């Protein structure tokens, strides 16, 4: 694929998209997803790994709540990757990632992921470029392993917001009592490194694309949620799953 330039990609829905109509369509898609997730769990032949990446305040938590929160919690698992613990740092960087790969029948959501180890680490120069590119190769091999040997289907979403929208959302965390618990002074420091993060994301898209990325315009939550839900719905429908029927003794 050609090199992705995030600055050339809009962060908002096309002007001719109707918000209410899109939200109504999303309701129908979520109903389909509920049935498809049940079918995935019952058949237990495939699994789905959904990687969600994005800058601070890009709406990762809200996306998970509003799209996947409607599904049966017995078959949907969420893992948020924070700064690695001492035990995790004592292993290879994919050790904690692989331990959370989905088993057959399940949807696993990564809120941040293995890609933090080639993004934030490069922006802050905790690793050099040679190490980063070696890690990217390892990530490609790991994703191929899941797809080829465990029938795991991988969807990778980058939630693409504008700097202005990020600033608005970060400021809202100070003003809105219901969101103050999300406030982290460090988010503003990271926001100042925007250009560096964009370069590292673009490099990541270029070098970790064996499993392709989907860039999701994320300034408007209703559009973001519709695009992600549609992609997940279409992926599950494409598996041509069937209920297994009565078990034989």
Report on the architecture of this protein:
The protein is of the alpha/beta class and 249 residues long. The protein has one domain (38-237): Rossmann fold. The protein is built from ten helices and five strands; from the N terminus they run αβαβααβααβαααβα. Helix 1 packs parallel to helix 10 and helix 2 (60-68) packs across helix 10 (221-237). The model has no long low-confidence stretch (mean pLDDT 95).
Given helix and strand content, the structural type is alpha/beta
N-to-C SSE string, H for helix and E for strand: HEHEHHEHHEHHHEH
Number of domains: 1
CATH topology: Rossmann fold
First-residue to last-residue Cα separation: 50 Å
- Give the mean pLDDT: 95
Q: Proportion of β residues?
A: 5-15%
Provide the low-confidence segments as ranges.
none
State the CATH class.
Alpha Beta
How many alpha or pi helices?
Answer: 10
Could you say which overall geometry the principal axes of the C-alpha atoms support?
Answer: globular
- For the record, the CATH architecture stands as 3-Layer(aba) Sandwich
What is the count of β-strands? 5
According to CATH, the homologous superfamily is P-loop containing nucleotide triphosphate hydrolases
Main β sheet profile: 5 strands, parallel
Query: What percent of residues adopt helix (DSSP H or I)?
Result: 40-55%
Write out the strand line-up for the largest beta sheet, numbering strands in chain order.
2-3-1-4-5
What assembly state would you assign to the polypeptide chains in this entry?
single chain
Backbone CA Rg = 19 Å
